[in-house]
Specification:
This protein has about 190 residues and is mostly beta strands. The chain has 3 domains: about 60 residues, SH3 type barrels (Roll); about 60 residues, Nucleic acid-binding proteins (OB fold (Dihydrolipoamide Acetyltransferase, E2P)), CATH 2.40.50; about 60 residues, Beta Barrel (OB fold (Dihydrolipoamide Acetyltransferase, E2P)), CATH 2.40.50.140. The chain has no helices and 16 strands. The strands form 3 sheets. The chain has a 6-stranded antiparallel beta sheet with strand order 1-6-2-3-4-5, with no helix packed on it. The protein has a 5-stranded antiparallel beta sheet with strand order 9-8-7-10-11, with no helix packed on it. Strands 14-13-12-15-16 form a 5-stranded antiparallel beta sheet, with no helix packed on it. β4 and β5 form a beta hairpin.
């Protein structure tokens, strides 16, 4: 057993007989009353996100997690297929149990998969990835005075907002946690 002071991002806890991953938390100290942790947690099986408040110092049941590096191979129906880089064993992970950052995953990308015994708890994509823009509208001349953004479709099918100077076939670096553009990358 651990306490709420042990919370970190991607920590796995057992709550209401389900396993949750902490995706966001904040320690709040009020003027009156005791301090508490406001958390946002993702259910590992269903992918549903809930918010919960834990009293400061409350005991929680941490889940034993082992992590390994896998390579994303391909999509097979409602599953994604990953290969262990050590023993080349392939595993199937249901798409619905994964987070939003999976939309930025391209073939042969390395990820970290967290396990509890033989159960896949989470798939952690790299925080920054480089993807090619496959379609976007051309920017208009004269719209450069402000930070105007336009939608762009990436090679994985994801759509993000990019600055006007980004064109088709450009490679952009983006943050998978916030789905935001960072910079244009030269080949």
């Amino acid at each position: 057993m651990a306490t709420t002071s042990d919370f970190k991002l991607n920590t796995m806890i057992k709550y209401n007989n389900e396993i949750y991953s902490i995706i966001d938390f904040q320690h709040v100290q009020t003027g009156r009353g005791g301090a508490y942790y406001q958390t946002k947690m993702r259910n590992v099986k269903t992918g549903k996100i809930i918010e919960n408040r834990f009293r400061s110092g409350e005991t929680v049941d941490m889940v034993n997690v082992s992590r390994s590096t896998y390579q994303f191979l391909y999509k097979d129906g409602d599953n994604l297929v990953f290969m262990n880089l050590d023993d080349y064993e392939q595993i199937y992970v249901p798409i619905k149990s994964l987070g939003e950052e999976i939309k930025f995953l391209k073939d042969n990308e390395n990820v970290i998969i967290a396990f509890n015994d033989d159960t896949v708890l989470s798939v952690d994509v790299p925080q920054h990835v480089n993807l090619r823009v496959v379609s976007t509208e051309p920017g208009l001349r004269g719209d450069t005075a402000t930070n105007v953004l336009k939608p762009a479709t990436l090679e994985t099918g994801a759509v993000i907002n990019v600055p006007l100077f980004i064109n088709e076939d450009d490679i952009v670096r983006l943050d998978t946690r916030t789905s935001t553009y960072i910079e244009r990358v030269k080949e």
